[in-house]
Design goal:
Its cofactor is pyridoxal 5'-phosphate. With 395 residues, the chain is of the alpha/beta class. The chain has 17 helices and 11 strands. The strands form 2 sheets. Strands 1-10-9-8-11-3-2 form a 7-stranded mixed β-sheet, sandwiched between helices. The chain has a 4-stranded parallel β-sheet with strand order 6-5-4-7, with helices on both faces.
């Protein structure tokens, strides 16, 4: 399903707070902060010229977050950055002065950090990022995972020293339990989704995602004309849409938000004209996108700055994993997890349908920006779906 943005606030200016969060100045500061993490470096921007010719567009470039700092996900940016910011702010309060990122390993900051516990609910990737940030600054960390999170993903989070807490039910159930427990224990919730009265921390998480935008835009000879960005609660899509809006205003790229058909909370919100919660049904293979209620901050941005909303099916996600693993025409292979290639799956559906091409304004000169939001974060499942291990493919 494909739908142009029908909301009455479409193309209105961003809320001033959101515009500041996703500004160029803040994006530069994000990169400075993240540069203090050991091993931090830009991820590749991969060009797919053969696929572009097949889909009758000018260029396809995909930012490959499967290489992000060992976590194999763009979420290595947001949660980690938010934890660092929050700990430094608390240190500043206790020390009575502004504390810079350059002091993150100082004894004074460590003494503050070791008394802080950060926590969140996760499908896998966000929790790893929060745990990694906590490990960097020396804070304690508790991560809540629902019953659908695989043992491999749980082990990957625990490797950063986090206490793991299992919750029966789905992602939304784990969010509720994480919030309740954090309030009872005085922990700091570092969530990538927002709700009434809880917006600043998710905004910091989104702000962390601007690092990948800064990296990508520096490499592009020209800005993109179109972007297809997958969404769970909407954080990464809102970060991209909002940053484009700040940079380019009315000349920003045409941005399509992509949901799994089985968890289409943003598509349904666009249709309803307000943020809505959708019913939980059969699980989707796109596990990192299996969210049933949008982040309010993300929805506020996307209702204004997204141009279209669409859904893709289970077979689309699996097909594009295989397509990226076995490219034709000399294109490089890309290891994309179950949720990683969803933006490309949407592009393929739109590009091959003349009516949808016209609706999205796709032409033979269009320059497409995509994000491989995750690599093989569950290697065993990747091999099952693609027929080759990620290590073999990388080799």
């Amino acid at each position: 399903m494909f739908m142009l943005n029908p909301n009455p606030d479409y193309r209105k200016a961003l809320d001033p707070a959101d515009a500041e969060t996703l500004s160029v100045a803040e994006a530069r500061e994000v990169e400075r902060f993240l540069g203090f993490r050991q091993g931090h470096k830009p991820t590749p921007l991969v060009s797919l010229p053969a696929l572009a010719r097949e889909l009758r567009v000018g260029a396809i470039r995909i930012k490959d977050e499967g290489h992000r700092l060992g976590l194999r996900s763009f979420k290595a940016l947001g949660g980690s950055y938010a934890v660092i910011r929050l700990v430094l702010e608390e240190a500043g309060k206790q020390l009575g002065r502004k504390v810079d990122i350059s002091e993150v390993q100082s004894p004074e900051v460590k003494a503050v950090a070791e008394k802080i516990t950060v926590s969140c609910a996760t499908d896998g990737n966000h929790g790893r990022s929060v745990a990694q940030g906590a490990q960097l600054v020396g804070a304690n960390c508790a991560i809540f995972v629902h019953s659908g999170v695989s043992d491999e993903r749980i082990a990957a989070i625990a490797s950063f020293g986090a206490k793991m807490i299992r919750v029966e039910g789905n992602y939304d159930d784990s969010v509720a339990e994480a919030t309740r427990t954090a309030e009872a224990n005085g922990w700091t919730t570092v969530s990538d989704t927002s709700w009434p009265g809880y917006e600043r921390v998710p905004s910091l998480v989104m702000q962390g995602y601007t690092a990948l935008m800064s990296e990508a835009l520096r490499e592009m000879p020209e800005p993109p004309t179109h972007a297809f960005v997958q969404a769970g609660v909407g954080g990464i899509a809102a970060a991209v849409a909002g940053h484009f809006s700040v940079l380019y205003g009315d000349k920003r790229p045409f941005l399509t938000v992509v949901d799994p058909a089985r968890a289409a909370c943003l598509f349904e919100s666009a249709k309803a004209g307000r943020a809505v919660k959708v019913e939980h049904g059969e699980a989707t293979v796109m596990a990192m996108l299996e969210c049933y209620e949008p982040s309010l901050v993300a929805w506020r941005i996307l209702s204004r700055a997204a141009d279209a909303f669409m859904t893709v099916d289970e077979e689309d996600a699996i097909s594009v994993m295989n397509r990226l693993a076995r490219p034709t025409g000399g294109d490089p292979a890309v290891v994309a997890g179950e949720s990683g290639g969803v933006g490309l799956a949407a592009l393929i559906k739109v590009a091959k349908d003349e009516n949808l091409r016209a609706a999205a304004g796709l032409t033979e000169t269009s320059r497409i920006f995509l994000i491989n939001t995750e690599g093989a974060t569950d290697p065993a499942l990747y091999e099952k779906l693609v027929g080759i291990s990620p290590d073999q493919l990388a080799a």
